[in-house]
Specification:
Elements lengths: L8 E2 L7 H14 L7 H11 L3 E3 L2 E2 L15 E12 L5 E9 L5 H9 L8 H6 L3 H9 L12 E5 L4 H14 L7 H4 L6 E4 L2 E6 L7 E7 L3 E3 L2 E3 L1 E6 L6 H12 L4 H4 L4 H8 L9 E5 L8 H12 L5 E5 L7 E2 L3 H7 L6 E6 L1 H16 L19 H5 L5 H6 L7 E3 L1 E4 L2 E8 L14 H25 L3 H14 L2 H11 L5 H17 L4 H22 L11 E5 L15 E6 L7 H9 L3 E3 L13 E5 L4 E4 L3 H23 L5 E2 L5 E8 L5 H6 L5 E5 L1 H5 L7 H15 L4 E4 L27 H6 L1 H15 L4 E5 L5 H17 L5 E7 L2 H5 L1 H4 L5 E4 L1 H9 L17 H16 L3 E4 L10 H6 L4 E4 L4 H10 L2 H11 L5 H11 L1
Parallel strand pairs: 1-4, 3-5, 6-9, 8-12, 19-20, 20-21, 21-22, 26-27, 26-33, 27-28, 28-29, 29-30, 30-31, 31-32, 32-33
Antiparallel strand pairs: 2-3, 4-5, 7-8, 9-12, 10-11, 13-16, 14-15, 14-16, 17-24, 18-22, 19-23, 23-24, 25-26
Length: 962
């Protein structure tokens, strides 16, 4: 483990610039026997990837994963530059902490520096410091204080025995972020210490993040080991932080005043007795936070600047909290609050400045703290009937205003191909009434646990019965939500306030869903929908509400959004089609419809919810077209076209195992996109000539920590074995702010799609990337393996990742290996001619390439229909990529949704794309489509399409000519 040592600090150094400082640092590391001379190249390469400037005059230069073999011994050396060194972007470094580490030991050092960088600025002190010991003191910061405030005191909690009361205390420490999950295991319950007056003491040093003391009393007197149990202290011990509090407690017990604690009716009494943090009895003011991203860096900075203009203490906390609050003048403390949109802030100020400070702060928050904000709902409007929130729908006025008329034609988002005809069934979530208050916390918790267990079992049955992997994956996620300990703990807190199981569950589900939605992230918004769906199932179970029964005749189901739980009532023999008001091509509605083979259109707008019962609809899921009350002639044409499509599908299925070759003899490889090993055999049986995209995220998402090499290797071997010699193209882990992993925390980003994701993130955690690459190489065993890196935007990212593969390949040789990149970012397409000289292949991810080129989020509720990959701008980037690759003798695949679009296939073939990778269900039809084409004709049409003004014109042009 890296530690700070005064002997390793070189005082009063000087360097003209950053390169000179790096050279001096490398010289010291080499001289002390920590690294070889080549480590300097690693220091330079790391700075080229991104500055190591940490803040407040400190930088932490270290090597890259490729130069770890230059490290002899793990260690650090510190160079003090009182005159400062320009580290770029105007950042001055006064202390460079050079790290030599063979793995990720430097992350521990970052944790040690966190306290020092929390509040204030060390820059000036680092310039003036004269001794190594003084630098150590600055970096280690002040000793941590014991956390003891109103949030760590719970009086009159429901507990039947000592163990349960102890668990309540641990829960408070977890909520205060004092301890990690392993803290429970370190508590020796059998060795609890009786203090007298019915008070007991427990403590542990295991899994402690920061020192804290929780105090809990039971609602009814208990007995433990034959003695009264009226109160319990649970200490998260770290250093000597608790010494002063313990002295006060001992004095209080010696004076015979223990009953002041065990019989306390307010947390203030406890805190005053123990010297805890007591909220000041100062003037206060409350204001809801309307900023959509919550109190992030920019608005928090505005708040601190306002507070710093007043000469006095100003604190802030979430309304309803019993803590003293944090200083509004501290940016780091404000950010640590994690205040979300719609939460109410309570400002508290010294009486001498309150008259001016509080109105200024409230006004600034109301005006958005420098950001554009929308008015929040009136108080009580959101949670007045939280059950309705779980069943959120467009309001009735919006629906009535947008109601569709007879004969109206609506163009929406094509979600699942096929033509459906039938009467409409508009299904709206049931409004469930329930009592606000419960019998007792213990009884209500028992009811809730019973409901959670029952719903978990019901979902388990659905998983077993489902034949579709994507639906099973959704339900598996729902089961995980039901077993989320943090969610249950938060519900318990609400039960302690007297709420019923229904009210506590609904409020917490809605609170969690709103927090995820406030991040304005597509994937998290889908998770919010999942949370509400799980919430509805449990609420229905608690109240005994049965699911609505569907009619027996074939119908078109109309909903705001089809939730996974609705799948249980979907009879594929009777549901002719699905039509939703909301959602996009990647929403659960679309995924479920495609998986079940039901024609579907999504994102049609709120007007569809106002359709009269039994209105006849004609729905074309291939074109994204809806016709209300069609004429007899329109119905006849539709039925005829449907019959033609069915026959086409039947014929295509008969020839699904044959290759896709155009009429004039040009072959196109057709592969499958899959997300799990279990899907491989089905893909092969449906005609896949290989796997063109294996998404590896699922193997990472299915574990509570990063899967080891053996776990991953087993998954990849299953795919390769099922392919029986066919090629496998694997995309390395593609996560980021938009697709986070629970064990890989990432800071919220303004726009995660333009932030740290894909290869950018993997290069920040080379240990995880190296483990995945090792697993892939080890699994090959002579079979054709293709590895591609996602979201590559520049050649340095490619070269860094490729160098890792080359290094590992020397250790784990693979006979048939190709390494390439995904073309998803326009910058990569624009330098394809440079990249093509080094990569083995390109795979074009048209979903992301389209949204980045057109600046339209493909999941946007109103704009996603315009995110069309047949836009000439996107086609030109594909053309550039193919031309560059073929000039170097490299192949190009397309693995986005565009590859399965019947109108896009002629364009992609004409542009020279070598491989189309699609969902397994689409393979037969795509092969059939290729066989209809003439390659030479497609080439001419593609050249002409590049000159058209937009996607609509391209689609019309292709439809007319082929």
């Amino acid at each position: 483990m890296l530690e700070l040592n005064a002997q390793h600090i070189h005082m009063h150094q000087a360097a003209a610039d950053k390169p000179a400082a790096l050279a001096l640092l490398a010289e010291v590391l080499v001289a002390d026997g920590l690294v070889a001379p080549g480590y300097l190249d690693g220091l330079r390469a790391r700075e080229a990837q991104g500055s190591t400037f940490l803040g407040q005059g400190i930088a932490i230069p270290h090597g890259t994963p490729e130069t770890r073999d230059q490290v002899f011994t793990t260690g650090v050396r510190l160079l003090h530059f009182p005159g400062g060194v320009d580290w770029g972007n105007g950042q001055q470094v006064y202390l460079a902490i050079g790290i030599a580490a063979r793995s990720d030991e430097h992350l521990r050092l970052l944790q040690l520096l966190t306290r020092a960088l929390g509040e204030g600025d060390l820059s000036e002190a680092l310039q003036k410091v004269h001794s190594p010991e003084a630098i150590i003191d600055l970096l280690q910061g002040a000793p941590q204080e014991l956390a003891l405030d109103g949030e760590l005191v719970a009086l009159g909690v429901a507990a039947d025995d000592f163990d349960e009361l102890a668990w309540q205390g641990v829960k408070l420490l977890k909520r205060a972020q004092c301890v990690e999950p392993g803290f429970n295991a370190g508590l020796a319950l059998s060795q609890a210490l009786p203090l007298g007056d019915g008070l007991w003491w427990l403590s542990s040093e295991q899994s402690v993040q920061s020192p804290g003391l929780a105090f809990v009393t039971p609602i009814n007197s208990l007995v433990h080991q034959g003695q009264p149990l009226n109160g319990l202290f649970v200490l998260a011990s770290l250093g000597e932080a608790h010494r002063a509090m313990l002295e006060r407690l001992c004095n209080l017990l010696i004076e015979g005043r223990g009953q002041e604690l065990s019989q306390a009716t307010s947390s203030r009494v406890v805190l005053e007795a123990l010297g805890g943090e007591v909220p000041a009895d100062w003037p206060s003011a409350q204001v809801p936070l309307a900023n959509p991203h919550g109190l992030h860096a920019r608005p928090a900075k505005v708040l601190t600047e306002i507070a710093q203009a007043f000469d006095g203490d100003i604190r802030v906390r979430l309304a309803g909290s019993e803590i003293a609050g944090v200083s509004v003048k501290s940016l780091s403390k404000l950010l640590a609050m994690g205040a979300q949109c719609s939460q109410v802030l309570e400002f508290i100020a010294e009486p001498s400045i309150a008259g001016d400070a509080l109105p200024a702060l409230v006004r600034a928050v109301e005006e958005g703290l420098g950001e554009e904000v929308e008015p929040l709902p009136e108080p009580g409007q959101v949670m007045e009937n939280a059950g309705a929130s779980l069943a959120a729908q467009p309001d009735q006025k919006t629906v009535e205003h947008a109601a569709l008329r007879v004969g109206e034609r609506v163009m929406a988002i094509a979600a699942s191909p096929g033509i459906a005809i039938g009467p409409v069934l508009v299904r709206k979530p049931q409004v469930i009434d329930y009592p606000k208050h419960g019998e007792s916390p213990a009884v209500e918790l028992q009811r809730l646990d019973a409901a959670l267990d029952r719903v978990f079992s019901e979902i388990g049955v659905l998983i077993e019965e489902s034949q579709v992997a994507s639906i099973r994956d959704i339900f598996t996620t729902h089961q995980a939500m039901l077993r989320d300990p943090a969610l249950r703990e938060e519900v318990q807190v609400r039960l302690q306030k007297g709420l019923s199981a229904e009210a506590a569950w609904v409020e917490e589900i809605e609170n969690a869903a709103q927090q995820q939605e406030s991040l304005h992230d597509k994937l998290l918004a889908e998770r919010a929908a999942d949370l509400r769906d799980v919430g509805r199932r449990v609420l229905a179970c608690l109240t005994g509400i049965e699911a609505e029964q569907a009619p027996d005749e074939p119908y078109i189901l109309v909903m705001d959004e089809v939730a996974p739980s609705d799948v249980a009532t979907l009879n594929c023999q009777r549901v002719a089609g699905i039509l939703t008001a909301g959602g996009g091509a990647t929403s659960h509605s679309a995924i479920i419809a495609r998986a079940l083979g039901i024609p579907a259109i999504v994102g049609a707008g709120p007007g569809v919810l106002g359709l009269a019962p039994n209105t006849l609809l004609l729905l074309d899921g291939e074109r994204g077209e809806l016709l209300v009350a069609p004429s007899d002639a329109q119905l006849a044409d539709a039925r005829s076209e449907r019959a033609e499509r069915e026959e086409r599908k039947r014929l295509a299925n008969e020839r699904r195992m044959e290759p896709a070759i155009t009429r004039d003899g040009h072959p196109v490889e057709i592969a499958a996109n899959i997300g799990a090993a279990g899907e491989t055999a089905d893909a092969v049986s449906l005609g896949a000539e290989g796997i063109g995209l294996l998404r590896t995220e699922l193997v990472f998402m299915n574990h509570s920590q990063a899967p080891d090499q053996g776990t991953q290797e087993a998954e990849y071997r299953r795919v390769l074995e099922a392919l029986e010699g066919r090629p496998l193209v694997v995309r390395t882990l593609d996560v980021g702010g938009d697709k986070p992993l629970p064990y890989w925390p990432m800071p919220a980003e303004e726009n995660p799609f333009l932030g740290v994701r894909g290869i950018r993130l993997s290069l920040q955690r080379p240990d995880i990337l190296e483990t995945q690459l090792r697993a892939l190489l080890a699994s090959a065993d002579g079979r054709p393996l293709r590895i591609m890196f996602p979201m590559v935007g520049n050649i340095d990212e490619w070269r860094t990742a490729k160098a890792m593969v080359d290094r590992l390949r020397a250790e784990l040789p693979v006979a048939d290996l190709q390494v390439g990149i995904m073309i998803e970012i326009p910058s990569a397409a624009l330098i394809a001619s440079v990249l093509a000289r080094e990569v083995d292949f390109f795979s074009i991810g048209t979903n992301d390439l389209t949204q980045y080129t057109l600046a339209i989020d493909r999941g946007h509720p109103t704009l996603s229909g315009q995110a069309d990959g047949l836009h000439p701008a996107v086609l030109r980037l594909i053309d550039m990529t193919v031309e560059a690759a073929h000039a170097q003798g490299k192949w190009v695949g397309v693995c986005g949704e565009l590859a399965a679009d019947a109108l896009a296939v002629p364009m992609l073939v004409g542009l020279g794309v070598d491989e189309l990778s699609v969902s397994a269900r689409s393979i037969a039809l795509v092969k059939a489509r290729v066989r209809e084409l003439d390659f030479s004709a497609c080439q001419r049409l593609a050249r002409q399409a590049l000159l058209l003004p937009g996607a609509h014109e391209v689609r019309a042009f292709v439809g007319e000519h082929c």
